[in-house]
Specification:
Elements lengths: L5 E6 L6 H16 L3 E6 L9 H11 L2 H4 L4 H11 L8 H12 L1 H7 L4 H4 L3 H4 L4
Length: about 130
């Protein structure tokens, strides 16, 4: 069994805007590339911004390695919707993803489908996929 390095990713510190969302996803992507796991740390100002729910869902996805290693952010949000008890409503994860994607489709296309096992340049050589 291989060990994976976990690194903190502080978000919503310098700003709480779409540029910080992009910056957070870029750092997640870099960590994926090198086989590292991000641990999302949200600066308290995230609670007062329009992306509060998205920051929360990013933390839920990244901070649970069993999901992060196997699912893209989109797959994580869809799985949450699939397990949502009330099929007449949309769960928080799926709603935050859809709301962001509606306003920022180009950003969603670039980042929402990133997968650890596909980005990780070491995955085939040392068994990170397992």
């Amino acid at each position: 069994m291989s060990k994976t390095t976990k690194l903190y990713v502080l978000c919503a510190y310098e700003s709480q805007d779409v540029l910080d969302i992009i910056n957070t996803f870029e750092r997640i992507k870099i960590l994926m590339k090198y086989g590292c796991l991000p641990y999302i740390m949200r600066y308290e100002k995230y609670k007062n911004c329009e992306f509060q729910s998205l920051y929360t869902q990013l933390a839920r996805w990244c901070n649970q390695p069993q999901f992060f290693k196997k699912k893209s952010f989109r797959q994580f949000c869809q799985a949450n919707q699939d397990y949502h008890k009330n099929k007449q409503t949309i769960c928080a994860a799926y709603k935050s993803m859809l709301d962001f994607e509606k306003v920022y489709p180009d950003i969603a296309i670039k980042y929402f489908d990133l997968k650890f096992e596909e980005q990780n340049k070491y995955s085939s050589s040392i068994g990170y996929n397992k």
